[in-house]
Fold:
Amino acid sequence: MAFFRTDLTGLSDERLMELVVRGDERAFGALYDRYRRKLLTYFHRMLWQDRERAQDFMQDLFAKIAQRPESYDPARPFSTWLYSVANNMCKNEYRREEVRRTAAPRLKAETDHIQAIHGDGVDRANFRERLDVELDKLDPDHKATFVMRYHEDLAIKEIAVAFGCSEGTVKSRLFYTLKKLAARLKEFDPKALHQTQAPLSGRSDDGTT
Structure:
């Protein structure tokens, strides 16, 4: 008797969730493998660069999916629903601990700033650390919008669906955030922010490729 193994890797997220609702553990595993690293990176950036906390949140999110797969609305794209849930988890964490603004790491010494100003190019490691610091000072919705757009590579439309808001609202948040970050990071090359984003997204600010 021949045994046929169904390959799940080519199935859409939505189709996999249909199978998960029916109790298919392999479908759940396929979704886990597909989004594990992305969510770990997202939580790491949203939760004060705390890798252990990010790991816990990533596992908790998938545990929620495993326990209540029917909570997923099949009328919504799975990826945007997933990030919406992740974002709500982060907001709850901010409210519980009330340490969002005090948990940011210290700024680099002034000598590092001077080196960034007068060097041949921006010290990217220093710039990224400063960027993370300033992101932690933003309103949670603005920070999440920035991270989804420039680090998770979501389009404007996808972010709007995740937040349940208009695309115009997403663009407004991005404009406001970029303007504020540019002012706070003015000791760096003004172009550095966009140069750092480009390799991460590959899309223009209007959500196109």
